[in-house]
Amino acid sequence: MPPSPWLAHCYTALGAPLALWALLAAIDRDFRTSFLLLAVTVLIDATDGWLARWLRVKERLPYFDGARLDDIIDYLTYVVVPVVIAIRVPLLPEAWAMPVGTVVLLSSAYGFSRTDAKVETTDFFFTGFPSYWNIVVLYLFLLGLPAAVNAAVLVTLAALVFAPMRYIYPSRTRALRRTTLALSALWGAAMFWMLWRLPEVNRGLVWISLAAPAYYVAISLWLAGREPR
């Protein structure tokens, strides 16, 4: 008999104290620690679904909504903490920091609340920009772009939360899954290395690593275009 299904939910819930720790680090401007902790939460988020399916949590704990728990943790780690980092660095013009942060928070709250946010069709998709603010803010931090450009990027992506575009679910979309997972693993290793080396930044490696997000967008557009709506 497999272990208790509560193991999967406890594993997911680890994201909450990690988010708190990352938030406190961001407030103290210890951005290296904050980003490293967010990287750990991404690893948890990428693997807790497999654990939950192996432990058959829906069947064995039908009264506990693991998806809701996951959304709560994700909103903290993918949205709230990155917004605080963007404000504390600061990555945004001082006069725009709170308005832009508010736009990101509210648009993501809408995205997380949509019942069709995760589409389970032939392939798994997210509807609208899937609030990967931790990745976006990390790249803005590493690239050192002008604050006005950073603000424009965040507002544009916040608007895309409402656009009826579909983005792949990296760990569950079946088409080109091995390629996606292999590239994701290489990208994750490169990003972790760059985080570990902070505050030193290898700009060349940062630009090369952008190939992975470019692949993600390209394959999302390709697969969504052939998926019946």
User: Which spans of ≥5 residues are poorly predicted at pLDDT below 50?
Assistant: none
Spatial strand arrangement across the major sheet: 1-2-3
Strand portion: under 5%
What is the helix content? 55-70%
Mind describing the biggest β-sheet? 3 strands, antiparallel
Q: Looking at the structure, what is the overall shape?
A: globular
CATH level-1 class: Mainly Alpha
SSE string, helices as H and strands as E: HHHHHHEEHHEHHH
Number of domains: 1
Overall mean confidence score, pLDDT? 89
- The strand count comes to 3
Please state the second-level CATH architecture: Up-down Bundle
Tell me the distance between the termini: 40 Å
Report Rg: 18 Å
CATH topology-level name: Four Helix Bundle (Hemerythrin (Met), subunit A)
Tell me the number of helical segments per DSSP (H or I, 4 or more residues long).
Answer: 11
**Which structural category do the helix and sheet elements fall into?**
mainly alpha
Describe, in plain words, how this protein is organized in 3D.
The model has no long low-confidence stretch (mean pLDDT 89). It contains eleven helices and three strands. The protein is mainly alpha-helical and 229 residues long. The protein has one domain (6-226): Four Helix Bundle (Hemerythrin (Met), subunit A) (Up-down Bundle), CATH 1.20.120. A hairpin with a 3-residue loop joins strand 1 and strand 2. A three-stranded antiparallel sheet has the order 1-2-3. Helices cover 69% and strands 4% of the residues. Helix 3 packs antiparallel against helix 5 and helix 5 (66-88) runs antiparallel to helix 6 (97-113).
